[in-house]
Amino acid sequence: MSKERIQISEALYDIMPSDYQDLVKSATYGKEDRGWKDIGTSKELIEQHSLCAGCPESMAFRYILASLPNPEDTVMVGSTGCTSLVFPMVAVHNIHSLFGNQNAIASGLKRALSVRFPGRVKDVVVLAGDGATVDIGLDMTLQAWFRQEKFTTICFDNELYANTGGQESGLMQKGFVAKMAPVGKLFDKVRLPEIARESGCHYVVNCTVSKPSLVEKVIRNAVHIAREIGPTYLQLYTPCILEIGKNSMEGLQEMRDSEKPAERFAYKEYVSEPAKQLLAELAAKDKERKAAAKQLAAQAQAN
Amino acid sequence: MSDYRVLPGPEHFLPPAAASMGISLPNPGEAHINGVITSEDKAYEEAARQFLMAKVPTIFPGPLVLWAWNEKAAKKATAVRHLFNTLKECVQPGQKPMLIPMPDYRPKYPKINPEVEINPNHPNLTIWHNKIDCCMFIGVHCHQANLSLKIIRGGTSCYTIAMCAQAGHEDAMLSFRDASVEKIMKLADTVKRLKGTVQPRLSAKNGASN
Ligand SMILES: Cc1ncc(C[n+]2csc(CCOP(=O)(O)OP(=O)(O)O)c2C)c(N)n1
Ligand code: SF4
Ligand SMILES: [Mg+2]
């Protein structure tokens, strides 16, 4: 859908709830260099949500939605879990899939979109919890990567099944005791980023969402690479403050502590050779565009 | 022909799809009332009567008219507004016409503001809150309208009218088909013509709230 078509009928404008009016008036659909800095000055693509107060998943959602390069032509695929409580409040097309099926649904969707809209950019972005991505949906996750499906997979890694009260997940740390996993995990955290690389992902990042600028960068890279080259994977630490016994204000510090150099969420990135080339080309184009804009502004000032 | 009649509820928690009870859709130029095929002219009269009788006659415009997808959608929106204005002019003191949008179909959990919108996944909340006893759907995609009309029939006693742009809705108590600007205007004209001839249900207990 093009941005021009997102307009409210004039005769019924006044009865539209204000969130829709705001979305049309001041959301950043169609803005070329949209990003986290728009937060606070434009309408965000997320309304009130029902996550626990201070849940880092909500920060992650806000940064991701602010950073998607093409939200009006993006379809997100979610799965059951705490994230699925947010999707009804997200102003980007989205599909709720049966738990674990998200990468299979996204594969079909991406292919169908390219048949239905040849020549149009249509991005597909999966966003699911670690239980959906790494345990129950692992088959679908991996098979999509093996097949080189061109979409981005984002995993909100909170290291357990939060929505069902705290069961053990493959991404849980060894030894961790959760409310519904009292024995403590006997195995290591699954190394999905490495598995993603070996399975054919062209861009893999493991990080926290403590820095909005970093989230913006990795989201843009992941979506652009998936669009042109092949599958991409982002594993973002969004700690479940409820399950690890933290207060609402402590999520950010928890992420900062976990991204220190020797910690499990220290920034790790893998970029394939073709993806590196694409990023270099995109950076060069971006530079050109910014220089041209600067020149135009200078000319306008001089006149 | 089926004996089943599509009547105001509350029918029960999961009312059957009217189609599964043998109710069929009208042919072009026809409509149905309570599941019985009838002439379109009769349907205009009955819909207008139901609006004029209701304590809170309400129009629920859906995404196909709320959003200006094309010129036709925008024109339909203008006609919907005209119908609402006509209703306001034609009701008696104590009646409260409403125009409540269904902007999209996302299930708005955990919270919806029933004063400003209706959602197809839990339309009963808006109907209960505003004590709506007669409503008309327009511009709602078929499957969402069917879902919604069934929920309303299941849990409320609200009378439902569908101004359907396709082949009609068997799950509404009254349905037009092939909705157009002209048909909406004709309904508005009928409301105007019947003004003052119908006694509003003001004293009766409003069943929509049960
Ligand atoms: C097919 C299926 N199996 C199991 C469930 C139950 N279930 C709901 S949420 C959930 C766990 C979600 O964990 P995760 O994907 O890590 O998301 P989180 O809630 O932690 O964000 C499970 C097992 C389900 N809804 N559907
Ligand atoms: S249970 Fe945990 S992950 Fe889910 S919303 Fe609450 S803090 Fe966030
Ligand atoms: Mg989880």
What would you note in describing this structure?
The complex is a heterodimer of chains A (303) and B (210). Chain A is of the alpha/beta class. Chain A has two domains: 32-271, Thiamin diphosphate (ThDP)-binding fold, Pyr/PP domains (Rossmann fold); 274-303. Chain A is built from nine helices and seven strands; from the N terminus they run ααββαβααβαβαβαβα. Chain A has helices at 18-26, 56-67, 102-116, 130-136, 138-146, 192-198, 212-228, 251-258, 273-302, and strands at residues 74-78, 94-96, 123-129, 152-157, 203-208, 232-237, 268-271. In chain A, strands 2-1-3-4-6-5-7 form a seven-stranded mixed β-sheet, sandwiched between helices. In chain A, helix 7 (212-228) links the parallel strand 5 (203-208) and strand 6. In chain A, helix 4 (130-136) packs across helix 5. Chain A starts with 17 loop residues before the first helix and ends with a helix. The model of chain A has no long low-confidence stretch (mean pLDDT 96). The model of chain B has no long low-confidence stretch (mean pLDDT 94). With 210 residues, chain B is α/β, with parallel strands linked by helices. Chain B contains six helices and seven strands. The radius of gyration of chain B is 16 Å and the shape is globular. In chain B, a hairpin with a 2-residue loop joins strand 1 and strand 2. In chain B, helix 3 (71-90) packs parallel to helix 6. Chain B has a seven-stranded mixed β-sheet, sandwiched between helices. The longest helix of chain B has 20 residues, at 71-90. Chain B has a domain at 35-130 and 184-196.
